[in-house]
């Protein structure tokens, strides 16, 4: 699977994996703000943006294998791999399946626990609705924090645009992939590279407690909780998000 990828900068490779149901477009401020210090690599996960969906069964493992293949194609032995929400699930699958490819991990607005049976059933309902012609615009208020919803009109408009352009088949596939993902706490306990965990104090989907649980499981992790940020912290508070990442990369180097 050849992933469409936008890149910026040079130096230490930093791969950033996007949230559901967005694309590499969500990392605009990271490509702009972090390129001075590293090689920012932002692929579209399969089915989203410019990447084809393929015909594999839905799984985060397939998405992680795509990223390992991308590293091969780019001639990168190792990279710092970060993911936000669904991107974090894929980063954890990569840590499980290809641990030798990681030089550091960033887990933003995500969680290591699997879906409850109710959450998995709800994802199937969403997948069906999408395949029947529905859209995901009603999820936007949950993706953003109260501060963004009340005071950051540009952010709300941009996220509505990104969510509104999500391809239905890919979004349904990804819902099924996320529903099938395993518990990742053991993977985190066994991770032997430094990790940065990022949370937003207004995140309604993956609250700060999820980030604290991941930080506790990881052998070498620091937690940054961003104020006035919801689930899409990298879009809502890009300067603070970028500073946390840049500080982490400086320590790593
Ligand atoms: C995301 O932002 O990627 C999704 O909220 C993840 C999920 O549905 O669990």
UniProtKB/TrEMBL annotation:
InterPro entries: AB_hydrolase_1, AB_hydrolase_fold, AB_hydrolase_sf. Keywords: Hydrolase. The keyword S-adenosyl-L-methionine does not apply. It holds the Pfam family Abhydrolase_1. The keyword Hydrolase applies. Residues 13-236 form the AB hydrolase-1 domain. It comes from the Bacteria. Gene3D superfamilies: alpha/beta hydrolase. GO terms for molecular function: hydrolase activity. This is Alpha/beta fold hydrolase. It comes from Herbidospora solisilvae. The lineage of its organism: Bacteria, Bacillati, Actinomycetota, Actinomycetes, Streptosporangiales.
């Amino acid at each position: 699977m050849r992933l469409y990828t936008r890149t910026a900068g040079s130096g230490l490779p930093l791969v950033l994996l996007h949230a559901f149901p967005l694309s590499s477009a969500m990392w605009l401020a990271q490509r702009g703000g972090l390129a001075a210090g590293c090689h920012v690599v932002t692929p579209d996960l399969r089915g989203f943006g410019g990447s084809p969906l393929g015909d594999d069964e839905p799984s985060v493992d397939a998405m992680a294998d795509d990223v390992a293949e991308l590293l091969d194609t780019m001639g990168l032995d190792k990279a710092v791999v970060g993911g936000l929400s669904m991107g974090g699930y894929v980063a954890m699958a990569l840590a499980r399946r290809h641990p030798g490819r990681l030089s550091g991990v960033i887990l933003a607005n995500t969680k290591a626990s699997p879906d409850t049976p109710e959450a998995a059933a709800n994802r199937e309902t969403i997948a069906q609705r999408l395949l029947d012609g529905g859209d995901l615009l009603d999820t936007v208020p949950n993706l953003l924090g109260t501060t963004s919803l009340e005071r950051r009109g540009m952010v709300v408009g941009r996220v509505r645009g990104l969510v509104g352009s999500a391809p239905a088949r890919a979004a349904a596939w990804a819902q099924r992939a996320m529903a099938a993902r395993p518990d990742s706490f053991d993977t985190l306990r066994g991770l032997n590279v430094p990790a940065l965990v990022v949370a937003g104090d207004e995140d309604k989907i993956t609250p700060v407690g999820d980030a604290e649980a991941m930080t506790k499981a990881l052998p070498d992790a620091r937690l940054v909780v961003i104020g006035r940020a919801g689930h899409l912290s990298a879009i809502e508070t890009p300067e603070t998000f970028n500073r946390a990442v840049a500080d982490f990369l400086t320590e790593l180097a």
